[in-house]
Amino acid sequence: MADNPHDRIRLNDNQRRHYEVLFARLEQSLDQIERATHGEPAASLMSRPIDDLPARFTSESAPIIATVRGVLDEVAASLELRPREVSRRRTCEALITSEMIGVENGYAKQLRGYGEIDSSVGERLDPALTRVHTGLGLLRDLLREAR
Questions:
Q1: Spatial CB neighbours of 52, under 8 Å, sequence gap ≥ 6
Q2: Could you tell me the residue ranges of all domains in the chain?
Q3: Between these two residues, 112 and 58, which has the higher pLDDT value?
Q4: pTM of the model
Q5: Contact 23, 72 (CB under 8 A)
Q6: pLDDT at 49
């Protein structure tokens, strides 16, 4: 960005961390846009992507994304930003914990705010949710076991 050391952008540690997180998030968003534009949709039962991107976006987005990535690379290098380290273990544990809480909130006794609850919810759905919760708990335990 600036060849002259006097033109260099100076950041304190907090500002540097802010830009490291910002640029990492931007990279992740660009990755998602690229996957949505050119990648294969993930197999999923409850989410079905629809092909509604404009043809021009699909055909012209790649070079724009490459340009944005180039600017990010240039700025990150000039600011001497360090790559953000992302713990896959912590990411998985956070996702599992979040989903376990979501399942717990799906039990019949938690649905009172949604109106009258048919007995079939507690009788049939709760046991299935318990099995899902148990499976998530096993995954969490596997993560914690390896510590």
A1: none
A2: 5-78, 88-145
A3: 58
A4: 0.70
A5: yes
A6: 79
